[in-house]
Design goal:
two-stranded antiparallel ribbon, 68% helix, 1 helix, mainly alpha
Length: 117
């Protein structure tokens, strides 16, 4: 057959065909239009992949920001709980002192002491 046509001798490719070692044995001859089409499709895949990575990066940044905000809120809540716990400890100490005082006052009233005002 004519060079470049199916069944053309592999040793003498036509001017619009190139030997591609990567596909040797399967499709030894490819036309420049075929190669150009494959390159265009490859560039399209790369562009879609780049867009997907960009979107994933934006999502990761948003998740990171949300996580930082959540951790900040949790830190503030923890600090408030620690302060409340400290204040509660002081209240409990005061209650014990008051209970002891009331108990002492009860024992005084049993002994006949009268409150003075």
């Amino acid at each position: 057959g004519a060079p470049g046509s199916p069944g053309a001798p592999v040793g003498r490719p036509g001017p619009s065909f190139v030997h591609d070692a990567a596909t040797a044995g399967r499709h030894p001859l490819r036309g420049s239009n075929q190669i150009r089409g494959e390159l265009v499709r490859g560039v399209g895949r790369l562009e879609r992949g780049t867009e997907a990575l960009t979107e994933a990066s934006h999502g990761a940044i948003q998740a990171n920001t949300a996580g930082e905000n959540l951790l900040g809120a949790l830190r503030e809540q923890r600090e408030a709980l620690v302060r409340s716990g400290s204040a509660l400890g002081g209240v409990q100490g005061g209650m014990k002192r008051n209970e002891a005082l009331v108990s002492d006052m009860n024992s005084w009233s049993r002994l006949g002491a009268k409150a003075t005002r």
